[in-house]
Specification:
alpha/beta, Undecaprenyl pyrophosphate synthetase, 7 helices, globular, binds 3-methylbut-3-enyl trihydrogen diphosphate, binds magnesium ion
Length: 248
């Protein structure tokens, strides 16, 4: 894939394998322009397109995007229905582009709240992109990190009850297989835009040893250069995983 944005490719070290992003600040972006919140969300979708494309160019293996949280369902009916509409239109229009760019899709979260149309489009999109071998794009929709862990525990408990799992065999590797991201590489870099410094119930299990990067940029203003900055910062980190280098 060629891109006019190749000029941003100043990164010499290999890109992190898995980047997760809490895409925050759409509402504030709109407010600053005296626009309705919907404009912020629409502009946010444009940023998603840009960042997905650029992540594929950089050779990132997995990009996980927090599209909306389980808690976001408590926003006004108007905003929730707009977010659903945007999700639907993105599924309708973007799948072909993902296919052309060799991108796989995985949607995680409690999808039971969505309309049958959204659910079947999501399933069709995932299966039509299954053979792709490039970037895996994970969209977290009506997702909560606590929900994810609870669902995993529930499935394990069911398998213990039906005798297919010996409780003595439950360990982190087994538990991991039941989580939404399952065997995908663990998150190397977690980015949150808009200046908020919290997780807001995003991935919990998968970020045990992630590096965190918080920036003030509002999601609609986030771009290729901002992602380069985050990755450059990531490269300065020393990942020790609880161990000491050279026994000092
Ligand atoms: C993030 O932007 C998108 C979603 C949560 C769906 P917000 O809508 O949270 O924007 P702010 O935080 O109010 O600026
Ligand atoms: C987290 O942002 C969810 C997404 C970005 C999708 P919120 O804006 O919902 O989080 P809080 O309310 O600031 O914690
Ligand atoms: Mg927010």
């Amino acid at each position: 894939m060629s891109s006019k944005k190749d000029s941003h490719k100043t990164l010499r070290k290999p890109a992190p394998k898995h980047i997760a992003i809490i895409m925050d600040g759409n509402g504030r972006w709109a407010k600053a322009r005296h626009l309705p919140r919907s404009s912020g969300h629409q502009k946010g979708v444009q940023t998603v397109r840009k960042i997905v494309k650029y992540s594929a160019i950089l050779g990132i293996k997995v990009l996980t995007l927090f599209a909306f949280s389980s808690e976001n369902m408590k926003r006004s009916n108007e905003e929730v229905s707009l977010l659903f509409k945007l999700f639907l239109s993105v599924l309708k229009t973007e799948t072909r582009k993902l296919k052309e760019n060799n991108i796989k899709l995985k949607i995680i979260g409690d999808l039971s709240v969505f309309t049958p149309e959204i659910i079947s489009l999501a399933e069709e999109a995932e299966s039509s992109l299954e053979e792709n071998t490039g970037l895996t794009l994970v969209i977290a929709a009506n997702y909560g990190g606590q929900w994810d862990i609870t669902e995993s525990a529930k499935k394990i408990a069911q398998n213990v009850a039906n005798g297919s799992i010996d409780p003595e065999k439950i360990n982190t590797a087994l538990f991991n297989k039941y989580t939404s991201l399952s065997t995908l590489p663990k998150v190397d870099l977690l980015i949150r835009t808009s200046g908020e410094v919290r997780l807001s119930n995003f991935l919990l299990w998968d970020i045990a040893y992630s590096e965190f990067y918080f920036c003030n940029t509002l999601w609609p203003d986030f771009n290729e250069k901002a992602l380069d900055d985050a990755i450059e910062d990531f490269h300065l980190r020393e990942r020790r995983y609880g161990q000491r280098k050279g026994n000092i």
